[in-house]
Each structure stands twice: as C-alpha cells, then as structure tokens.
Design a protein that fits this description.
Blueprint lengths: L4 E9 L17 H12 L3 E5 H7 L10 E6 L18 E5 L10 E5 L2 H10 L4 E4 L3 H9 L5 E7 L26 E9 L4 E8 L3
C-alpha cells in the first residue's frame, strides 16, 4: 500500500490504558508532554485523529506550519460548531469510512476505507502523517501495519482503570492478527513528573 510515513503519539496511564476517566478530555499529562506533542506535530505535513478524540479533547489540530488536519469517523457525523471548523490552520479533511462523504463548510469530505484515504493523502503530496489517537484509529492503523513510529508518554502518576478502556492496540484481549516488531529508539525518564517518554520504530524485512 502506498501511503505516507505514519507516526503515532499517545499517553498511557500506569495500567497501560489510553483514555481519560469518565470520558473527560485528556489534554496532556504535563507541560513536558505538551512540548513533546508540539515537537512531534512540527515534523508532520498532516495530522490525523479519530472523531471521538477530536470531540472529547475539543482539538483544533493547530501548528505554526499549518499541517493538513484530518479526522476519521465511521458515521461521518460532525458538529459544524466544533472549534476545528472556526480555528485558523491547515486544510481540513474529513473521512467517513461507513457513510457518505461529510459535508461541512470549509472542509473537504471523503468516503471510503482508511487505506484508500492514506493512499489519497500520499497522491496529494503528504509524505509524513502524524496520528494523535484515539484508540480505535490507532488500532485500525496497526491492523494495516501502517505505524512506522510510535511515541508514548507513560504517565506513571495516573491510573485510569476501567475494564473496557482500550490499550495501545484496542480493547483488552482483542489482539492484533499478528505480532508487529518494533525496537526502542529513544527513552527518557523524568522522575520529577513520574513520566517516561519512549519512541519505537517498526522493524521491517
């Protein structure tokens, strides 16, 4: 599959879960985690998130270099009043994977599979795509073996809990069809905040 190089950035609580309690916005775990998020955005030509994460965190996906802002939804239902659609930034692209292309003023709608959308981004010149969640989109990209880099903030100071809360590759016990091999590329521990920052790269061939 022809596609951009794709990186993923997520924060994990002490139990390996990636969602905030009671569905509240996750924000970022610390000021250092926030700085890392902004640095990772700078390396990408486009950003991508799932609709649930976009709405829960009230994201606008802004960055000074104005990357494309891409959002994936199964239903294709978006709130036109969401801050994304009134905030300055790069072009907005909305993908519906199981419905007609969304029609929102100021955004370009797409319909089809995630794989086809990734190929379309590549055809239109996007070579580096950065994903900021959520768990469903991370799982879908992993199933496509489309995650070339994974960046994690392990927030040892926080325990979210919850039987149904997803981990990095989806709900507990819902394993990927096959193992994917990654190697640790970078590791930093910050005892003052109780966080660790890890980066992995996909081993291929």
């Amino acid at each position: 599959m022809t596609r951009p190089q794709i990186s993923l950035n997520l924060a994990l609580s002490a139990d390996g879960r990636i969602t905030s309690p009671a569905g509240r916005p996750s924000g970022w775990t610390s000021q250092r985690d926030h700085r890392r998020l902004l640095q990772l955005r700078q390396a990408a030509e486009a950003l991508i998130v799932g609709r649930g994460t976009l709405e829960a965190d009230r994201m606008t996906l802004g960055a000074p270099h104005r990357p494309w802002r891409c959002v994936v939804s199964r239903s294709g239902r978006f709130d036109p009043g969401h801050p994304l659609f009134s905030s300055p930034g790069g072009p907005i692209h909305l993908l519906a994977t199981a419905a007609a292309a969304p029609s929102i003023k100021g955004a370009e709608g797409h319909a089809g599979s995630l794989a086809d959308f990734l190929a379309e981004l590549h055809r239109r010149g996007i070579r580096r795509l950065h994903c900021e969640g959520g768990g469903g989109l991370a799982r879908a990209l992993a199933e496509l073996d489309a995650l070339d880099q994974v960046h994690l903030t392990w927030a040892g100071h926080t325990l979210f809990g919850g039987r149904e809360n997803p981990g990095l590759t989806g709900p507990p016990g819902d394993f990927l069809p096959a193992s994917l091999r990654y190697e640790l590329a970078d590791f930093e521990a910050d005892p003052s905040s109780g966080e660790c920052f890890l980066s992995y790269r996909r081993l291929r061939g």
